[in-house]
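User: I'll paste a sequence; please echo it back and then give the predicted structure.

Assistant: Echoing your sequence first, then the prediction.
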Amino acid sequence: MAAAIAVQSIPDPLPPRRKSITEFFTKRNTKVQLDDVREYDRLQRQHYLLKSARKANAWAPVDFSQPLTILDVGTGNGIWALEMAQREVHCNVIGLDVRVPLDHAIRPKNLRYVQADLHQQWPLESDSVDFIFQRNVSPEIQRNQWVSLYQEMMRVLKPGGLIEILEPDPTPHNPGPVQQAFEAFLHTKWDKANLSFDFAASIEDWLHETGFQLIETKTLDIPIGEWPEEPELKQFGFINMETQKLFFRNRKYEFSSQWGFSSEEYDRAVQDILEEFEEYHGFSRYHAWIAKKP
């Protein structure tokens, strides 16, 4: 049964943050593309937002005091894997993705990155991983690839090992009229790419089909904007609004070209969407699934 997670208390203070995860991974690297820099920074903000709202980097009941092997599937900018390696210094952490962070010269000794296609067999031994974490990969998984992805997780996971999947719905909830038009556009875009817009309704079934057991599901709603009255939620809403702004900024060329909008028309449409988040009390919904290999 899904459990809606309500944020009620101020999280413990986070350690001082570096200015940008990009600076960590691209120090002295002059070949970094600007689009990558911007998207890495958006993902960093999203990471800290989720960490604060969830009060942890993982919900799965993993005993991190043990010397575990941890796999971050779809590591992206690597921030989750980096923090886990820094925090759990006795664990081995692997970040796996089709592209890995660009500069690893100063990475922790217990962190390594593996470049691999998520939809092919991974260069990891069977029964070699204790805990697998997946986040934000739904836009990269076609309808017929979900089960094979979880079959590969099952292969590399040790018996008794755990997985945790954390994925947001493709678009925010409580949309206004402009946001509804954008949602219809994005739905069509996903359909053309053979992506499942309603994947969240099927993941539990796919996990059962793969053979995972003790499946637990949770949901986490994070407001967009400062419309909540509760101070902590208002703070989270402010941060989430900033990540939404970056989402539209980073995709301006792509979306405006597909919509046939001028730069000014695109900016006005985005501004309307941002205002609707406040007016209609928009929020992002994240789904989590925790499961065990028998």
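The two ends are 20 Å apart (CA to CA). The CA atoms of residues 217 and 289 lie 5 Å apart.
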